[in-house]
């Protein structure tokens, strides 16, 4: 294994044990602001080929590899644990020697004597014309944030998704292009005094895995740069982000406002769990600004102009599954005038199509599982906004848990690098397919904000640059007809998510509003559910589906048996069009 951070001067014929030896040290994050990151010194790497070219025998090379200074094994394990990805070839960075016992060979003496010089080394290498600062060795790479100002030269969201949080500003010291995965559950302190300094805020550290991770910080800063936010908190799922945010910002005994059309699990938490904390809720139509104002005025504390029981207006925009759009700028001004905060769940829009914070919202939330991750292989959620609000949410998050695994954070980082390419394709395909579906005789109605027929089309045009990759529509038929259409599709998967490279289709009446039960029946008995269109029989057990809500209750939320939600992936438009048309021909 070659140590990439060290450089040697080799003679033409043999290795000189007294030759110049440099070792790239760890950065000092204990005193510098998070944004002021030292950068790496460049060094020529020692490889097997270069040593053999210089006349080194295989015996000499083995000696070079294995004759490390005392304490190297411990140092190596520390660096590997902090800085190496476990999903590829480990890249060892920043190996600094200890001040232990005296070296017992000329080679070790040369290595040990280089430590003092390495600690003060100043790099002269430039990166794209920018000077790079030197590294100071304090033996810690526990924490370090990137400075979003270093990506101000990037003029487009596409470039930001690739480079923000990484290019010229990454808290992990490595010369790898990709961000390493730092797998650790805790961070150590060299001495008790360093721990005391940390407790008294003179030293920076994540301290424990639930409180932060260098890989996760890169994902957070990439999202912050894209949203134009001061801070971002990334968590284990979108629902985790939603619930922690609600419990933080809506006090016990308080009041909040939300909209009728939303993700069902979010509605369940708001309607079933928040009341246990004494929190009441007003539910309005997404377009009902007058209803929002009435709720704000009704719940205002009598006689106290500065007090307001309504502390939060939380809504999706576009909403799930009907893609309703809220006038973010208008509702933000209204809520702020009454002392309430505004949080927008922009999962269906993505940060590329809609900038909720720029439109006036206080917070923007995403299920990063969807478009941001984009590959149907990771669960994550994030919330972005002012440092003050995110810090409040982060405090509760540290108590409750729901921490994102660093391997998952790496998948989010990787997924975001193609976000702009994927979303462009999905925007285009969805809009074109929405027009095809709207003109088809076997489709009753199409819900897509890019269509003039959508009730909030004008609002969407004003606040969105693209209309997203999801189209909802109603097939001209009943439950059985719709099932036949869905089952006839060949490209999309029947699954409960959206936003990935692969197209996904689901029937909300079944996917989100039906529940499975196990009941025991007599052998060879046939059972027909009166609420279903299937005749089911079995030898011993029947897996019986029944509606979680009655049809009347589902209709209150607009969920009909013939509703289909189609998330278009990055497949070719003509292939998707042909597949949808052939499936419609079967009904």
TrEMBL record:
<protein>
    <recommendedName>
        <fullName>Cystathionine gamma synthase</fullName>
    </recommendedName>
</protein>
<keyword id="KW-0663">Pyridoxal phosphate</keyword>
<comment type="similarity">
    <text>Belongs to the trans-sulfuration enzymes family.</text>
</comment>
<dbReference type="InterPro" id="IPR054542">
    <property type="entry name" value="Cys_met_metab_PP"/>
</dbReference>
<dbReference type="InterPro" id="IPR015421">
    <property type="entry name" value="PyrdxlP-dep_Trfase_major"/>
</dbReference>
<dbReference type="InterPro" id="IPR015422">
    <property type="entry name" value="PyrdxlP-dep_Trfase_small"/>
</dbReference>
<dbReference type="InterPro" id="IPR044639">
    <property type="entry name" value="CGS1/2"/>
</dbReference>
<dbReference type="GO" id="GO:0030170">
    <property type="term" value="F:pyridoxal phosphate binding"/>
</dbReference>
<dbReference type="InterPro" id="IPR015424">
    <property type="entry name" value="PyrdxlP-dep_Trfase"/>
</dbReference>
<dbReference type="Pfam" id="PF01053">
    <property type="entry name" value="Cys_Met_Meta_PP"/>
</dbReference>
<dbReference type="GO" id="GO:0003962">
    <property type="term" value="F:cystathionine gamma-synthase activity"/>
</dbReference>
<dbReference type="GO" id="GO:0009086">
    <property type="term" value="P:methionine biosynthetic process"/>
</dbReference>
<dbReference type="GO" id="GO:0019346">
    <property type="term" value="P:transsulfuration"/>
</dbReference>
<dbReference type="GO" id="GO:0009507">
    <property type="term" value="C:chloroplast"/>
</dbReference>
<dbReference type="InterPro" id="IPR000277">
    <property type="entry name" value="Cys/Met-Metab_PyrdxlP-dep_enz"/>
</dbReference>
């Amino acid at each position: 294994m070659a140590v990439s951070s060290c450089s040697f001067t080799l003679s033409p014929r043999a290795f000189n044990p007294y030759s110049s030896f440099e070792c790239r040290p760890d950065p000092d994050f204990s005193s510098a602001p998070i944004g002021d990151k030292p950068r790496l010194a460049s060094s020529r790497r020692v490889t097997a080929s270069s040593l053999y070219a210089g006349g080194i025998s295989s015996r000499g090379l083995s000696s070079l590899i294995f004759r490390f200074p005392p304490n190297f094994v411990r140092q190596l394990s520390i660096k590997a644990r902090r800085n190496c990805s476990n999903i590829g070839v480990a890249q060892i960075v920043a190996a600094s020697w200890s001040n232990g016992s005296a070296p017992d060979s000329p080679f070790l003496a040369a290595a040990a004597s280089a430590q003092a010089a390495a600690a003060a080394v100043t790099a002269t290498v430039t990166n794209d014309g920018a000077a790079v600062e030197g590294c100071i060795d304090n033996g810690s790479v526990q924490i370090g944030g990137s400075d979003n100002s270093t990506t101000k030269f990037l003029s487009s969201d596409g470039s930001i998704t690739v480079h923000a949080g990484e290019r010229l500003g990454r808290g992990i010291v490595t010369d790898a292009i990709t961000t390493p995965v730092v797998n650790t559950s805790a961070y150590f302190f060299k001495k008790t005094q360093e721990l005391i300094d940390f407790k008294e805020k003179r030293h920076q550290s994540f301290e424990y895995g639930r409180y932060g991770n260098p890989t996760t910080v890169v994902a957070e800063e990439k999202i912050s740069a894209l949203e134009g936010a001061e801070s971002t908190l990334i968590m284990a799922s979108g629902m985790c982000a939603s619930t922690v945010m609600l419990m933080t910002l809506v006090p016990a005994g308080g009041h909040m406002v939300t909209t009728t059309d939303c993700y069902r699990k979010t509605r369940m938490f708001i309607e079933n769990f928040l009341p246990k904390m004494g929190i009441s809720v007003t539910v309005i139509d997404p377009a009902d600004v007058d209803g929002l104002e009435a709720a704000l005025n009704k719940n205002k504390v009598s006689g106290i102009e500065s007090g307001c029981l309504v502390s939060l207006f939380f809504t999706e925009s576009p909403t799930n599954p009907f893609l309703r759009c809220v006038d973010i700028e208008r509702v933000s001004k209204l809520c702020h005038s009454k002392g309430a905060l505004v949080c927008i769940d922009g999962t269906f829009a993505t940060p590329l199509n809609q900038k909720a914070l720029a439109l006036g919202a206080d917070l923007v939330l995403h299920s990063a599982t969807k478009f941001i991750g984009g590959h149907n292989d990771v669960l994550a959620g994030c919330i972005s906004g002012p440092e003050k609000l995110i810090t409040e949410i982060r405090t509760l998050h540290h108590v409750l848990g729901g921490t994102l695994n660093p391997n998952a954070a790496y998948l989010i980082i990787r997924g975001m690098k193609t976000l702009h390419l994927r979303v462009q394709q999905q925007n285009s395909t969805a809009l074109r397919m929405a027009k095809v579906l709207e003109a088809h005789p076997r489709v009753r109605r199409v819900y897509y904000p890019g269509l003039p027929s959508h009730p909030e089309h004008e609002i969407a045009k004003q606040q969105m640059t693209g209309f997203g990759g999801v189209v909802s529509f109603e097939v001209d038929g009943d439950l059985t007809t719709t099932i036949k259409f869905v089952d006839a599709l060949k490209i999309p998967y029947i699954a409960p998510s959206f936003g990935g490279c692969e197209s996904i289709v689901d029937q909300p009446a079944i996917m989100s509003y039906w529940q499975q039960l196990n009941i025991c029946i007599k052998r060879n008995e046939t059972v027909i559910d009166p609420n279903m269109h299937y005749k089911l029989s079995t030898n011993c057990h029947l897996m019986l589906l029944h509606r979680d809500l009655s049809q009347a209750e589902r209709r209150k939320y607009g969920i009909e048996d013939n509703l289909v939600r189609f998330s278009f992936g990055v497949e070719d438009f003509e292939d998707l069009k042909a597949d949808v048309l052939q499936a419609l021909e079967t009904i």
